[in-house]
TrEMBL record:
It comes from the Archaea. Keywords: Membrane, Transmembrane, Transmembrane helix. InterPro entries: Chlamydia_OmcB, DUF11_rpt, Fim_isopep_form_D2_dom, OmcB-like_DUF11. Pfam families: DUF11 (PF01345). This is DUF11 domain-containing protein. The chain crosses the membrane at residues 749-768. It comes from Candidatus Argoarchaeum ethanivorans. Residues 473-602, 610-739 form the DUF11 domain. The lineage of its organism: Archaea, Methanobacteriati, Methanobacteriota, Stenosarchaea group, Methanomicrobia.
Length: 779
């Protein structure tokens, strides 16, 4: 009982260990592809808008900010395969790496920790060194490839809405709307022109997607362009906070005067995925709703209007009860479009579901303009402008209040004059954050209109710690005959099963499984798949390795099985647990997975097989008999050990001059009269199949004493018994019983006929005697 309890405890601990191991991920890796090939897809997207210009260029930047110390590598134009590291940099926490070039699309960025990446682009028709224009600049916040999805929708559109999708893996089939599938390889992107709202995008493997919208969105004036990153359906929800208000005034950069239309609107587009979606919009002024939308329906809402603005040496920030909370009874998506009905202010952003929001962020490239924040509950904010670990200032916000955070002021002069790399955090309360244009073109660091365009673009700061990241990970579970530990016996053959599972979210390659059979277990060479090698070591352990015959690529969530047999050696120690250990390793494009380990064990319990037999003749061990007498022999076969006995064989030898009477119970398998007149009787098939410890079985049979059996002699009947068990053989054990024929000393008894014959004989003797006497006398 103690051994069984130990095994149960071992099983429980083993499964708990497996559960804990599966929750421990390998080192986090983040990878990105830069969306938008400047010479192809992105240029085509610009040229297909209403600008009516061809032959221009597309320029841009990619900005990387480290959320912790990381190593970052860049592979240029990685389309269809890994080309090697073209650039490398070590970034400290909050440090920025900004790339300015007209050849960024398709670049592959890899980091061994959390980084934010934003991609800004603009079209121009003059020098390639032009800065972002006020008409056609836009920014996509890029999701790490671990967060890419296979299902997207275009939630917002204008007359010319351009879609660009990009593949993470080779042979990715992408379908846009009702169009034909297009196959893309890793890093390759594709432009789709004039995509209408509600267009569904599906792919056979993960992709990223972004859109460019044209004038007309949010009011529309002139050449307005907004970039929107499309979020995978799996990351959307029903609860959103929006911090970007509408503005009551719009200030020019050179005169401080308002535009003819003073209101700078921030319009929300709320997209419902399913029918009968109820939507509520909560602000400090009350709650609007429910608003019911059908499947793929949209609703437009203008954000509350805030007065004032950042004018030269003016206020450090704008704040107040001008945020909004949009929630629903089903999945929705909320996007914002900022527009002043002029060409100076046109940017867009998406909102993130509240479940993804964090309590701290690092801001990527932000050459001017403020960040907008709003908490999900009352909170204290801290701002570290230069990412030196010390906040420059703090402030408090109530729920449904918002604030702008500017890069500099007369009071807080921190170089450089932008928010790039700044850290913003709270006292533990999650908050929504966007960076983008305000209602002034002359905030610190911003370019004046007279010399170059203002920065009319923005983005959502992604919550990297809440997003899926690329984690190469692997797991292995081992069983023996379907359990973690099994009771076995000598010479038994068991089946080991190895389940190798990709527990990460990247494809694994070069999987190597290394299994070590313990001593006293012999490998049976019938593994599936066939092993690469099986080596018997000096300590009698066996090392078995699989690699070349395993799956070449194991996708996330998939598994592969290995099975093989092993036999318990006859000399394996009993009362001992024999443990079979296995280790697995693999590689991936994002780092190695493993080693991970598991084991399964067999246990030989210390049971002793033993058997006994007792033989009687007519209930005694020895009996006096006479010729022609029939006697009954009884055999009592007993399990005297602690293991169940099987294949019991009883072999009885009747001595010569005793004849077997064919009436045995149970019936014998055979009865053979030998040349020496002994008889061999065997029982097996009709005996008890499994004789448990302490139990017995009986055999009875008769024999007759032959008439010529020797007298004064003991005739001995011998019997032998053998059996097998899971713990070895029992027997042989023997016993005997005997019969004895004694010499006779009895007086004869005369019958009447005998008496008469005797009288006659005596009379004859008398007559003869008298005759002899007369003659003598005559002599």
């Amino acid at each position: 009982m103690e051994n069984k309890t130990t095994i149960l405890i071992t099983l429980l601990v083993t499964f708990l260990c497996i559960a804990s191991f599966s929750s421990v991920a390998s080192a986090q890796v983040q990878t990105y592809y830069v969306l938008g090939d400047e010479a192809n897809s992105l240029l085509n997207a610009y040229e297909n808008t209403s600008y009516g210009s061809t032959g221009g260029w597309v320029n841009g930047t990619v900005s990387i900010v480290a959320w912790k110390p990381v190593n970052v590598t860049i592979d240029k134009d990685e389309i269809g395969g890994y080309n090697g590291v073209d650039d490398f940099k070590v970034l400290s926490m909050g440090e920025i790496w900004t790339l300015d070039t007209s050849d960024l699309g398709g670049d592959y960025i890899r980091a061994n920790g959390s980084i934010s990446v934003v991609r800004t682009a603009w079209w121009f028709d003059a020098s390639p060194n032009d800065l972002p224009g006020k008409f056609v600049a836009g920014t996509w916040e890029l999701y790490p490839t671990g967060a890419w999805g296979t299902n997207y929708v275009v939630p917002i559109a204008t007359v010319n809405t351009e879609l660009i999708v990009q593949a993470k893996e080779d042979n990715t089939d992408v379908t846009v709307g009702a169009g034909p599938a297009v196959t893309l390889n890793r890093g390759e992107d594709k432009h789709f022109a004039d995509v209408p709202v509600k267009t569904k995008i599906t792919a056979t493997k993960p992709i990223q997607a972004g859109i460019l919208t044209n004038k007309g969105l949010g009011g529309g004036y002139g050449w307005d362009t907004r970039f929107f990153t499309l979020t995978p359906r799996s990351l959307l929800g029903n609860d959103y906070y929006i911090p970007v208000p509408s503005f009551a005034q719009n200030y020019t950069s050179d005169e401080g005067m308002q535009h003819p239309d003073p209101v700078v609107k921030t319009n929300l587009t709320i997209y419902a995925f399913n029918a009968s979606t109820g939507i509520w919009i909560e602000t400090a002024g009350g709650t609007l709703g429910p608003i019911t939308l059908g499947a793929d329906g949209t609703y437009e809402y203008q954000m509350p209007v805030i007065s004032g603005g950042y004018i030269n040496e003016g206020d450090l920030w704008l704040n107040g009860s001008f945020a909004a909370h949009v929630y629903a009874n089903d999945t929705i998506w909320v996007l914002g479009s900022a527009d002043d009905t002029d060409d100076d202010y046109d940017w867009g952003f998406q909102s993130l579901n509240a479940s993804l929001l964090m309590d701290y962020y690092y801001i990527p490239w932000s050459p001017a303009n403020p960040a907008y924040v709003t908490p999900v509950a009352d909170a204290t904010f801290y701002v570290d402008l230069d990412a030196d670990g010390t906040e420059e200032y703090s402030f408090t916000l109530d729920r449904l209040n918002m604030s702008t955070i500017y890069p500099n002021s007369t009071k807080y002069k921190v170089a450089p004059l932008n928010l790039t790399g700044a850290e913003i955090w709270t006292d533990g309360v999650p908050f929504a954050i966007q960076w983008g244009q305000d209602n002034n073109e002359d905030t610190p660091g911003e370019r004046a209109v007279n010399t170059s365009a203002d920065n009319d673009f923005g983005y959502t700061v992604l919550p990297l710690q809440k997003l899926p990241t690329l984690v190469p990970d692997i797991g292995i579970v081992k069983f023996v005959d379907g359990v973690k530990s099994k009771m076995v016996v000598h010479n038994q053959t068991v089946t080991f099963t190895l389940n190798v599972t990709n527990t990460g979210n990247v494809t694994l390659r070069e999987i190597v499984v290394n299994d070590t059979l313990p001593a006293k277990l012999t490998f049976v060479n019938n593994a599936i798949p066939v092993q690469d090698s099986a080596t018997l070591n000096a300590d009698r352990t066996t090392t078995i390795i699989w690699q070349t015959n395993l799956t070449a690529e194991l996708g996330p969530g998939n598994y592969t099985l290995i099975t093989f047999n092993a036999t318990i050696d006859p000399d394996a120690e009993i009362g001992v647990t024999h443990t079979n250990k296995v280790t697995v390793n693999a590689t991936s494009d994002y780092g190695d997975a493993g080693p991970k380990n598991d084991s399964a064990s067999v246990y030989l319990e210390g049971k002793v097989p033993d058997i006994g037999i007792v033989k009687f003749v007519d209930g005694v061990k020895s009996k006096m008999v006479v010729h022609n007498q029939t006697v009954t022999f009884t055999l009592n076969v007993m399990n005297t050990g602690s293991a169940t006995l099987r294949e019991i064989v009883v072999n009885d030898t009747l001595p010569a001059k005793l004849t077997f009477v064919n009436s045995a119970i149970p019936v014998q398998d055979s009865a053979t009269l030998n040349a020496d007149r002994t008889t061999t009787i065997i029982w097996q098939t009709n005996l008890t199949a499994g004789l448990e410890p302490g139990n017995y079985t009986l055999i009875t049979f008769n024999a007759t004493i032959d008439p010529d059996a020797e007298i004064d002699v003991t005739h001995t009947n011998k019997v032998t018994v053998n059996a097998t068990s899971d713990y070895g053989d029992a027997g042989p054990k023997s016993d005997s019983a005997s019969v004895y024929l004694e010499r006779s000393h009895k007086v004869p008894v005369l019958t009447p006929f005998g008496i008469a014959a005797l009288i006659g004989l005596l009379s004859l003797v008398a007559v003869l005697s008298m005759s002899k006497g007369v003659r003598k006398k005559r002599v």
